[in-house]
Amino acid sequence: MIPTAAAQAKQGPSMLRDRLQDPALLREACYIDGTWVGPPSFSVNNPATGMELAKVPQLSADGCTRAVEAAERAFLTWAKHTAKQRSNILRKWYELIVANREDLALILTSEQGKPLSEALGEVDIGGAYVEFFAEEARRIYGETIPSPRPDARLLAIKQPIGVCGAITPWNFPNSMITRKVSPALAAGCTVVLKPASETPLSALALVALAEKAGVPKGVFNVITGDSRSIGKVFCEHPAVRFVGFTGSTEVGKILYRQASVGVKKLGLELGGNAPFVVFDDADIEAAVEGAMVSKYRNMGQTCVCANRIYAQAGIYDEFVRKLSKKVAAMKIGDGTEQGVVQGPLINMEAVDKIERHIADAVERGAKVVTGGKRHALGRSFFEPTVLADVRPDSLVSQEETFGPLAPVIHFKDEADVIAMCNASPFGLASYFYSRDLGRVWRVAEALESGMVGVNTGLITTEVAPFGGVKESGLGREGSRHGMEEYVEIKYVMMAGL
Ligand code: ADP
């Protein structure tokens, strides 16, 4: 018998809860001022099955204001904790993330769709940000400045900026949160986080662990609900001093405009359109491996995914052949199944976009080498695709696809490909493969992007500054630079000495 929708809806939450070692990690409430707040309202569904996993509250401006004001009160005491006290609490949070990594990964795959092995990887790097910033908490140094006056001494101290609003996307429901929240807390700031509506359960599990780690009430609040009104409160409430956002360029621009009302400092991690270049002198096997990782990780749904692949004439055919062979062999399915390396896309709009990009490229003369259509599994499953002979002016080379589509474009020489790479309003990540040391330096310096991967398709790590140039955003996350967003420099002159 086919279960009714209502029966399925009932089954969903209990099924995920039953599979968790700690069922208390599946929360259906927001966390404000140290209290779990309901009522559950909108459904969070599993993109692989369509089944409801849980319901979370639908808060709007009022709920957000309450959370901001709780964070404002908590800031008074949290900022006065010593660096070591804050560091110890963050360290404890990190240890709990590690201890619960399997549950966190299962929640993540269930709400987002990525294969469990990738979800475990994300939880690990999510934890690594917390560990790193627990360490950095004790290294927020100021400076003394040689004085221009004999009677004065000058110094610059760093102080926490204040209450921070954070808005995160669905593609990395765990690590995008810790990458913002842990430097904020380390610096002495307090946070109100609004996770993506598609994937709030990872955020709620993370804050449940933060509560257990001893993060005091009001220091880290998580609210789910109406993104527009919450974003507006972040941009306009006088207590909020910094708004950190990861998501689309479109929404980033809305926030940039709104933030002018309250002159908020902004951190924006927006869209990319990463070029991936394979020169004739590249190690082809390595380039194919790099392209697989860069393009197909998270089903192509990362802002640093290779979006347009440029291959030079001498290796073009070999590269396309080897890449397609690997792509055609990928196992697709529910991310919790053994051996699956490609899950469903987040929703049907994602499927529409990839189809639009394929149709446009094919209309301009591209060939489908492998994939090219919706997968037999239905829903938002899509066959990982390789297109050859893609024209450089195709839609796919101008817009981020955010899906498992590798368009391979021909190029002649170094100058030609650098010009194509830089002919974009975006500048987040770029990648290239070459074994010529002179070329490596020339191209790395010429590419207009915040990050460059040379002979690698995977560059994200907690110890390096992540961020973009041009319309890809403002500021950096991760590394010691990631702390800069959350501190203000105060200059003090002590005169009359
Ligand atoms: P994506 O394409 O990844 O869904 P979005 O930019 O639409 O990117 O969403 C990223 C985050 O921004 C999500 O948490 C979403 O709810 C939130 N968001 C969407 N629209 C707005 C808005 N107008 N103001 C504030 N946040 C928004």
Written description of the protein model:
The protein is an alpha/beta fold. The chain is 39% helix and 20% strand. The chain is built from 14 helices and 22 strands. A 7-stranded mixed beta sheet has the order 14-15-16-13-12-18-19, sandwiched between helices. A 6-stranded mixed beta sheet has the order 9-8-7-10-11-21, with helices on both faces. Strand 10, helix 9 (249-262) and strand 11 form a beta-alpha-beta unit. Helix 2 (61-78) crosses helix 8 (227-236) and helix 4 crosses helix 5 (116-136). The longest helix is centred in the N-terminal third of the chain and has 21 residues, at 116-136. The N and C termini lie far apart (87 Å). Residues 1-10 have low confidence and may be disordered. The protein binds adenosine-5'-diphosphate (ADP). Adenosine-5'-diphosphate is lined by residues 167-170, 194, 196-197, 227-228, 231, 247-248, 251, 254.
Outline the secondary-structure elements.
Layout: H1 5-19, E1 30-32, E2 35-37, E3 42-45, E4 52-56, H2 61-78, H3 83-99, H4 101-112, H5 116-136, E5 143-145, E6 153-160, E7 163-167, H6 175-187, E8 190-194, H7 200-213, E9 220-222, H8 227-236, E10 240-246, H9 249-262, E11 265-269, E12 274-278, H10 284-296, E13 306-312, H11 316-328, H12 348-363, E14 367-370, E15 385-388, E16 405-411, H13 414-422, E17 426-427, E18 429-433, H14 437-446, E19 451-454, E20 469-470, E21 473-474, E22 487-494
Parallel strand pairs: 7-8, 7-10, 8-9, 10-11, 12-13, 12-18, 13-16, 15-16, 18-19
Antiparallel strand pairs: 1-2, 3-4, 5-6, 6-22, 11-21, 14-15, 17-20
Helix pairs in contact: 2-8, 3-5, 3-6, 3-7, 4-5, 4-7, 5-6, 8-9, 10-11
